[in-house]
C-alpha cells in the first residue's frame, strides 16, 4: 500500500502531470557515507494536443530519434533528481498517447544522497528518499500529481532492495519549493518518494548487539570467577583490544551522525566498562600484595556490585533516549 498527497487544488496550473514511480533496484545502501543507488521507472501523463501525435504516428509508441524530434514540437515535463550526487543516467525513453493524454516513460539510474538518520541504530527505519524537481516551468506551468510508488514489478522474482534491509513503508508526495531559477521568487513542483527500510532483526542482533552485549557480560562475569587478579587483568585487556577491532569491522554499517545513536552508546558503554575493569583489577592486584583485607573487600564490592549496577542504569538510559 502506498499513500500519496498533493496540495495542487488551490493552484491553477497549465499541466497537471500524473506521475507513477517504480523502483526496479535499490542497492549499495551505505549508511555511513549517506548514499544509495537506484534503478527507477517513471511514467508521466498529462493532457495535451494529442491529435498531432495521432496524425503522425497513429496508435503506436515512439522512441529514439522519432521521439526526440517530435518532443521538441510539444511541451513536455522535464525534471532533475535534486538529491543525486551525479546527473542521472537514462537508459531509454518512450512516448505514447492514451486517450487525450501524452504518456512519457523513462528508465534511469542514479546515485542518491540521503540523511543517515537512525537514532536507534540498528533499530528504527532509514528514509531512502528521492527528490524529483521540475524545471520546465514553475507551478503555474506544471505540477506533479503523485499517483503511486511501487517496489518492483509484480511478476519479477527477485529482491528489489538489496542487502540486509527490508521495506517498512512507502509513500509519495508533492511539494512546492522556491528555486534560484527564474530569479529566485517563483516556486517549482517537487515529487518526493519515500521508501522507509529497516535492518532485518537477525542482522541487528547477530552482527551488532550480540558481540557488544557479550563483551559487556564477560567483562562483568570475570569478577565473579575464581581466578587470580592477573588472569582477570589479562581478560579485561583482551576485551579492551576487541572493542576497537569490532568498531572497525562495523565501520561501513554504522551511520555517521552528529549525535550518539544506540550502537555508538553501546560502544561507549562497553569501552568505559572494560576500561574501568582494567583499572579496578590492576588496583586490586596491588592491594592484594599489601594484604589489606578491608581495602580488598571494598574493591571487590566496587567490581561486583557498583560497576554492574551503573552499567545497567546507563544501558536503560541509553535505550530510553535512543530507541523508545
Q: Please tally the β strands and state the result.
A: 11
- Based on secondary structure, the structural category is alpha+beta
Round the Cα radius of gyration to an integer and report it. Answer: 29 Å
Strand order of the largest sheet: 4-6-7-3-2-9
Portion of residues within helices = 25-40%
- Average pLDDT works out at 88
Tell me, what's the shape? elongated
Describe the structure.
The protein has 324 residues and is α+β, with helices and mostly antiparallel strands. Helix content is 36%, strand content 33%. The strands form 2 sheets. The protein has a 6-stranded mixed β-sheet. A 5-stranded mixed β-sheet has the order 1-10-11-8-5. β6 (89-98) and β7 form a beta hairpin. The chain is elongated and about 105 Å long. It starts with a strand and ends with a helix.
Layout of helices and strands, plus pairs?
Layout (H helix, E strand, L loop, with lengths): L2 E3 L9 E16 L4 E13 L3 H7 L4 E2 H8 L7 E3 L7 E10 L2 E13 L12 E9 L7 E10 L13 E14 L8 E13 L1 H21 L7 H21 L12 H29 L2 H30 L2
Parallel strand pairs: 1-10, 2-9
Antiparallel strand pairs: 2-3, 3-7, 4-6, 5-8, 6-7, 8-11, 10-11
Helix pairs in contact: 3-4, 3-5, 4-5, 5-6
Describe the structure in brief.
The protein has 324 residues and is of the alpha+beta class. 36% of the residues lie in helices and 33% in strands. A hairpin with an 8-residue loop joins strand 10 (165-178) and strand 11.
Amino acid at each position: 500500500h502506498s499513500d500519496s498527497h498533493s496540495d495542487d487544488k488551490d493552484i491553477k496550473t497549465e499541466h497537471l502531470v500524473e506521475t507513477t514511480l517504480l523502483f526496479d533496484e535499490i542497492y549499495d545502501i551505505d549508511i555511513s557515507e549517506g548514499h544509495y543507488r537506484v534503478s527507477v521507472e517513471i511514467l508521466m501523463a498529462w493532457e495535451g494536443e494529442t491529435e498531432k501525435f495521432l496524425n503522425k504516428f497513429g496508435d503506436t509508441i515512439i522512441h529514439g530519434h522519432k521521439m526526440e524530434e517530435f518532443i521538441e514540437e510539444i511541451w513536455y515535463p522535464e525534471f532533475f533528481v535534486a538529491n543525486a550526487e551525479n546527473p542521472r543516467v537514462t537508459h531509454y525513453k518512450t512516448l505514447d498517447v492514451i486517450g487525450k493524454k501524452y504518456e512519457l516513460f523513462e528508465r534511469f539510474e542514479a546515485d542518491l544522497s540521503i540523511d543517515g538518520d537512525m537514532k536507534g541504530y540498528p533499530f528504527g527505519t532509514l528514509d531512502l528518499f528521492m527528490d524529483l524537481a521540475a524545471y520546465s516551468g514553475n507551478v503555474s506551468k506544471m505540477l506533479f500529481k503523485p499517483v503511486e510508488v511501487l517496489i518492483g514489478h509484480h511478476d519479477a522474482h527477485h529482491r528489489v532492495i538489496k542487502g540486509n534491509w527490508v521495506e517498512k513503508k512507502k509513500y509519495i508526495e508533492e511539494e512546492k519549493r522556491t528555486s534560484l531559477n527564474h530569479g529566485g521568487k517563483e516556486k517549482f513542483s517537487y515529487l518526493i518518494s519515500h521508501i522507509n527500510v529497516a535492518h532485518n532483526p537477525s542482522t541487528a542482533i547477530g552482527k551488532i548487539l550480540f558481540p557488544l552485549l557479550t563483551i559487556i557480560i564477560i567483562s562483568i562475569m570475570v569478577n565473579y570467577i575464581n581466578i587470580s587478579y592477573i588472569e582477570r587483568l589479562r581478560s579485561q585487556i583482551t576485551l579492551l583490544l576487541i572493542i576497537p577491532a569490532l568498531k572497525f569491522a562495523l565501520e561501513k554499517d554504522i551511520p555517521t551522525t552528529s549525535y550518539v545513536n544506540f550502537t555508538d552508546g553501546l560502544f561507549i558503554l562497553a569501552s568505559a566498562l572494560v576500561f574501568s575493569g582494567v583499572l579496578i583489577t590492576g588496583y586490586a592486584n596491588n592491594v592484594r600484595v599489601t594484604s589489606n583485607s578491608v581495602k580488598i573487600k571494598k574493591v571487590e564490592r566496587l567490581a561486583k556490585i557498583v560497576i554492574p549496577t551503573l552499567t545497567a542504569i546507563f544501558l536503560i538510559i541509553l535505550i530510553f533516549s535512543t530507541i523508545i
